[in-house]
């Protein structure tokens, strides 16, 4: 599998899982379930410097760089945001900085969750994606 | 008995008739009829307002006060007719006391930047309350920092009411201004504004009333209240966005320095010296928001024709009904349980983030506000990050309250 396929395959898997869910209730119940399943971030990482502050909910994001790949861990105080955070980690964690920087994350549109990236949502999700890319950029420049 | 029934009928608001006059309320979202309960943020607009706005651009549009042609004259008359309507609506003594601004925020900033700069000095004190909206905190913080004055805060009790004993203790001859909201946007608390004004005047302080939330629910009579300044926004009383009002006692407004310089606010300009226009134009530099100001009159007429007492009675009934219904939901806690409050219900459900409820209600076409409602200090007071807030207007129904309650129950089931 080529590197560019990795993201595509991961996104396709999520889109397929959502295609089985008909109603908005099922979709959100799935996201809520993902949010509950995402292991809470260790208290030692819940630092001010790891906070991505939305207006309403808070996201914590931690990144590690190992063997040329970036690994993310994250948490949120709101469970729906946490579920969406879990999807972003599924797609982006364990990829190279290049792959992360090029990711368009079209799956959010396909599963009907784009509205959560709208500026008015103020849930930190939009800023979280930016921060994931910022980490990728930082690791890329260290690496090169 | 018969008399009572008759008066009950007379006092009942014709809600379905009213709803038919608000086109947005006919909208559906995700094939569900919209339940709009974010009225404390902004109200929807009746056809009368929408038509007035459209009609102005279609038939009357011209710049005001300077032109001699017919359109300019008609536009000026329409603009000034709103000033007269506002004067009568809030019971001001003269039209000169009504200054048009962009909204409550600009009205408060106008006072801070004119009266405040002239009259606040080092060591003076400005008194606000713990339930103020950020727009009635930040302008005073800026002023106090600049003037080395002191901002003091009247605390609230667990019910979300001002602690009047503390207010009394904080008042002193050093107090130059009490800037306080009439109604809390987050909790709905109606403050005892008349007492506050009397007590403040007794120590020689002026009073600015933030009327952003009160004007749509209560009968406002500024002369009876005897407040020195009163600020409110058009869009929260069924009018357009981008237009608001600052009321000030005439002598006070006359003594204050100008705010913004430009056209309209001058009498004569030379490079050596400029003299300023008389009230209210002194504070209305530049071309104002003419169309929205003209349409604001339609909103005021609409409210007056409907009858503020009837609106109030209907909203109180909605509040009582929804409070009762919502308290039956397990682990739901209402913030703001003042004896005297408007149709606002702020709540949290144990172990659930307010945003999660907001998102799930949105999917059910129920529009509520979640978050800190621009009152972060108040949220800190209660030790919470924010609440879910449902706020009622004249067009809301008991069925909509039922939909809200069902929606909350469904959301909780999905989240827990």
Automatic annotation (TrEMBL), chain A:
It comes from Hydrotalea sandarakina. Residues 15-134 form the Fe-S metabolism associated domain. Pfam families: SufE. It comes from the Bacteria. Belongs to the SufE family. The lineage of its organism: Bacteria, Pseudomonadati, Bacteroidota, Chitinophagia, Chitinophagales. PANTHER family: SUFE-LIKE PROTEIN 2, CHLOROPLASTIC, SULFUR ACCEPTOR PROTEIN CSDE. This is Cysteine desulfuration protein SufE.
